[in-house]
Amino acid sequence: MTVKGSSIIEVVVAIFIISMSIALSGVLFNTVFSSSDRLLKQRAWYDTNHLVNEVITTKNTEPLILEKQLYTVSKQTQLMDEAKGLWLIQINATQGEDKLLASRRLYIEIPVNED
Fold it and tell me: Where are the membrane-spanning stretches (predicted)?
């Protein structure tokens, strides 16, 4: 009994079919995964935390609205105690008008310049 080998054309066709099935499953996985609500919330948390770190390092108390591809990150500021320079910073990531994805609040003290 002899076993026949495969021709080069059969091997190339088999590799092509396997490659296409892997590529299509990757595209399908990416489409499903990128549209998941969990991933969207993770991205929103990342952006809110990044903005919190920026506020802490730069001491910037200006209101801000960042339009992202799928959601909006907004920073609202309120002066709580002018004598002590105490600010309340509220950072929200929302999708549309009503869906809150992430929210952070922090108090920051910015010393008053006494010249």
Answer: 12-33
For residues 22 and 24, give the distance between their C-alpha atoms in angstroms, rounded to a whole number: 6
Rounded Cα distance, 53 and 65, in Å: 16
Q: How far apart are CA 55 and CA 108, in angstroms?
A: 9
Cβ 55 vs Cβ 74: under 8 Å: no
The pLDDT of residue 69 is 87
63 φ, ψ to 5°? -60, 150
pLDDT value at 27 more than 80? yes
Which residues lie below 8 Å from residue 63, measured CB to CB, with a gap of 6+? 74, 75, 76, 77
